[in-house]
Amino acid sequence: MARMRVNGQALEFALDPATPLLWALRDAANLTGTKQGCGGTGQCGACTVIVDGGAVLSCAVTIGSLEGADVTTIEGLAAHPLTMALVAEDAIGCGFCLPGFTCAAAALLQQSSSPAAEQVDALPTRCACGLQPRLRRAIERAAGAMATSNQPAQQPPAPLQRTPEIVTPPR
User: Do 45 and 20 touch, CB atoms closer than 8 A?
Assistant: First the structure.
């Protein structure tokens, strides 16, 4: 069983350790905001989540390799300044790439309080709706909001203090 913290909650997945994180999140934990777009090849970025502060393609990493990791999905970013900035900049589009983009951009903002255009362009997710300029503005807006509030994008996870919830896939 793989144990990790997902969106601040301790979870233990009763799944094969070779299960991709994407499917553990979607099928066992019912966190369906993380999307599959490329069939598990790691090319589209729609499945991007944050693992230990960095953007990771959840289709390309197994739960067995994430023992003790801290995972944040789109559901864990509901109150993040970037989420608010995406709404303010009307950068939603069809919404398919947005969860992966939001996670990748939030991880970037954790690493750089004022990311360069090249860093934003290097994010693994591309928007087929053509919203890239709005997405860029949303990142800039979020960076400004985070600098003004003088608070980190996410609070560090609290230490594990209770028995993890065991998550099994529905039958």
Answer: no
